[in-house]
Amino acid sequence: MTVTFLLTGASGFVGSRVADAARRRPGVRVRPLSRQGAHDPDAVRGDLADPSSLRGACAGVDVLVHCASRIGGDDATVEAVNDHGTRALVEEAVRAGVRRIVYVSTAAVHGRGPFRGVRPGQAPIAPASATSRTRAAADRHVLDAGGLVLRPHLVYGEGDRWVVPGVAWLLGELSATVTGCTALQSMIDVSTLGRAVVAAALSPEHGGGVHYVGHPEPVPVTELLGAVHEELGVPGGGAAVDVATALDRAAGSPRALHHLAMLTVDHWFVDDGFWKDLDCSPGDGFAAGFRRSAPWYRSFLAGRTAS
User: Fold this and answer.
1) pLDDT at 238
2) For residues 111 and 98, what is the distance between their CA atoms, to the nearest angstrom?
3) CATH 3.40.50.970: does it fit domain 3-306?
4) Average pLDDT in the 163-169 region?
5) CB-facing half-sphere around the CA of 266: CA atoms within 13 A
6) CA distances from 97 to 32, 60, 93, 151, 200 (A)
């Protein structure tokens, strides 16, 4: 029996890994939603920013896996894609009789924390940006339709242009690594996330509702900073500073303060129920995952410096 996925964001950081994982599953056919709709013969033409273009997109689809989100940009565009576009897509899925809807959201819908050992349903929705606010609205559309919302926190690996590069940039700005960070972060390798999304979409054990998707072992920020420093050579020999000094040095830079706020506050989300009975392993943890992706990060950061 063939299961047909309609996949949004198939060319993106997370969506491309979902597409790879789905295509490795026997009996799964992937139909990417694409604004151009050109190169892949299975592609379905549609644009989340244009709800009328989605009419008929879910015909013959068994599972909708929604990985596309607008990150940043003007508020009107972010709302059009994440909120209104998701609503239109979900309505189309319901109209077409799609039996499963899965949305890859973000734990950022809860705001900036601290969150230590938080389980599904324990943290309020308190988004701190237009992107998170509109993704929280997308969550609601999916949940109201009986769908499954998956909320990773920090996603790393080849193709990551925000999490690890942001840490590297911060350490470079400070000309130092930071000591005394006791915070814990929920993290997941992007390839593992891709496999987990597909497994959840196919699992009879996972109905509608919200799950956090991260490796069961949270990552101490000291380990994250140490990996960036040692594996990537960032920063270039600067002395270590404590958190108070780092905050003082970053006082004139909202971007640096944003990254420090993330690193110095717990964002640890617990969801043992997600991995239970799931045909997917959470993998071997941050240290091994980061080591595998370190060559890509070194190349990416070197290219950015050169440009």
Assistant:
1) 63
2) 32
3) no
4) 92
5) 11
6) 18, 9, 6, 25, 19
